[in-house]
Amino acid sequence: MIAAHLPHFLISKAGLYSMYYPRLLDLRSARHLHRSDRKMSKVMTSPFYDYLCTVAKVTIYTDGAAKGNPGRGGYGVVLLAPAREGVPPRRKELSAGYRITTNNRMELLAVIEGLEALKYEGCEVTIYSDSRYVVDAVEKGWVLGWERKNFSGKKNPDLWARFLRAYRRHRVRFVWVKGHAGNPENERCDALAVAAAESGRLLEDTGYDPA
Question: Could you give the residue numbers annotated as active site?
Answer without folding.
Answer: 63-64, 107, 130, 180, 190
